[in-house]
Amino acid sequence: ALLYIILLQLAGIFSLHVVQKLCFPYFWKDVFYLMKVIRYGARLEIFKITSNVVTIIDRFVQQAERIPTKPFLIYEGITYTYQDINERSNKLANVFLEQGTLKKGDSVALLMNNEPDFICVWFGLIKLGCSVAFLNTNIKSRSLLHCFNCCGAKTLVVGADLLDSLEDILPSFLEDSISVWVMKNESSHTEVQTLLDKMDQASDKPTPPALRAATSLKAATLYIFTSGTTGLPKAAVITHLQSLKAAAGFWAYGGSEDDVIYIPLPLYHSAASLIGVGGTIEMGATCVLKKKFSASQFWNDCIKYDVTIFQYIGELCRYLCNQPKAEGEKKHKVHMGVGNGLRQDVWREFHRRFGEIRMCELYGSTEGNLCFMNHIGKIGAVGRSNFFYKLLFKYDLVRYDMVRDEPVKNRQGYCQHVNKGETGLLLSKIGASSPFFGYAGSKQLTEKKLMRNVFVKGDAYFNTGDLMAEDAEDFICFKDRVGDTFRWKGENVATTEVTEVLGMVDFIQEANVYGVEIPGNEGRAGMAAIIVRPECEFSGKKLFDHVLNDLPAYARPLFIRLQESMEMTGTFKQQKFNLVESGFNPSTSCNPLYFLDYSEKSYVPLTNTLYGSIVAGERKL
């Protein structure tokens, strides 16, 4: 009888296992992932309750004391230990402490390319209790001055190789009482102060811990600039809460202190700084920093430095797949990639070429209050949800009218949920567990990202501006962007910023900027429909010179469409949907089309032959 009971129990367990495999195939993976999320969340809750916040810089100092001689950073073949970076950042902090030019709570702008001193300056300033604004190295003079006004910075630290790019606006900095410090021993600009010579003389002793101490998770620690729908770059407020959440990314995916992380993305973006560097610190791991991504050097670097995890954007993986095949492509130790924007076709080709590397897609904007993580690794999904996840993070997909460019409302004026599998606009509810900190310098910009009275009177949601779909298995898939932002070359392009720049050209009366898809390319390329002033003529050369001087490469419209009038929506907004749908094929367009040709240094007529070479991938974009 006992044997019979045991056999029944075993049969029951086996049956449950079979049912779980068939009906809930991801059950245990979901459970283990959620346990990690809850465990990390509990740690943050303790910080809230005790007002004793262990920040990223605190964590770094702890790691430097625990594993001082362990490699923290490898750059161009040179290894820097945790102790090396800790002491050098102390030197930077002590320079400003001795100068007496900075105090706790000040905001400092940082304009540097990827290099070890980017991290040393960042950490050194945080040790003084300052907040740091990461400036995109691609932005031009007008945008750069705007960035200072946003975050209230009165001090700029600039990399040695970028000082010359400030030549035109240095007088404006002086007028605004902004002090400029360059990472050099000497400078030909008398108004620019040097840092390297002073750091050589400074002490490497720690600054008082009280200077960097934080009592609230909601205190700002960084400003990261993001292009949005309102024109010029916006300074997203990054709090200790956001930076700590981002630093848990690698760990949540199963990373450990034994991993070596390859960071080829720019540090001024949140992916490289918050997830990459922050994640390395959280685990006590090692990172390999690349000055600039190189498809030809990527796998050689991975093999040389025993890389196990790399960061990516979809475009990066596509470049790697387009590289000529080489021997030893699979002879590496990489087991994981963490990033976003990976197309399904590129994902499959990447696996075929380079091995079954676990690609961990994640979704979340710099300023957003929601994050999805595809911890299962399903191809094509940016994240995964389930019943328990929805209890922790409140989000909704609502119907969106692409033609009218606005959410669909019912008779009561509220948004409508989409059905399972349908595409909808992703909204994330704002609450105590998922706050939205907005942008520095303007409450109006922050308010524009909010939607109020969405389902009931008084509620508030963060509008991601992204169209998503959730399938029957609870996988989240990205479909498209809406409104006035599109993504090209791994950067967000704000159409209104480009429109404003185009509006400065004397022969342009009106411009409507949008993104169009080019086969084989990630994201959307910029295109502008323009109306030429009646008394003027279109000049491809003049327009080329203007966009070259005033726009970063990724934001320059590749295509121009000449029109006599602009189609408007019922709410008097420029109509983009039909323009996006019509694309840039000259054989189907009744309007003259032009292409940005760097060899001719002009916008040239887009012929059928030129169109064919672009679509075939023969033309460099």
Automatic annotation (TrEMBL):
Enzyme's top EC category: ligase
Superkingdom of origin: Eukaryota
SUPFAM superfamilies listed in its UniProt record: Acetyl-CoA synthetase-like
GO CC, alphabetical: endoplasmic reticulum membrane; plasma membrane
Cellular compartments annotated: Cell membrane
Catalyzed chemical reaction(s): a very long-chain fatty acid + ATP + CoA = a very long-chain fatty acyl-CoA + AMP + diphosphate; a long-chain fatty acid + ATP + CoA = a long-chain fatty acyl-CoA + AMP + diphosphate; tetracosanoate + ATP + CoA = tetracosanoyl-CoA + AMP + diphosphate
Record domain AMP-binding enzyme C-terminal: where: 497-573
GO molecular function, one term: long-chain fatty acid-CoA ligase activity
EC numbers for this chain: 6.2.1.3
Keyword Hydrolase included in the entry's annotation: no
Signal sequence range: 1-15
Residues covered by the AMP-dependent synthetase/ligase domain: 61-382
UniProt KW keywords: Cell membrane, Fatty acid metabolism, Ligase, Lipid metabolism, Lipid transport, Membrane, Nucleotide-binding, Signal, Transmembrane, Transmembrane helix, Transport
Membrane topology label: Multi-pass membrane protein
GO biological process: long-chain fatty acid import into cell
Family statement drawn from the similarity comment of this UniProt entry: Belongs to the ATP-dependent AMP-binding enzyme family.
Name of the protein in its database record: long-chain-fatty-acid--CoA ligase
This protein's encoding gene: SLC27A6
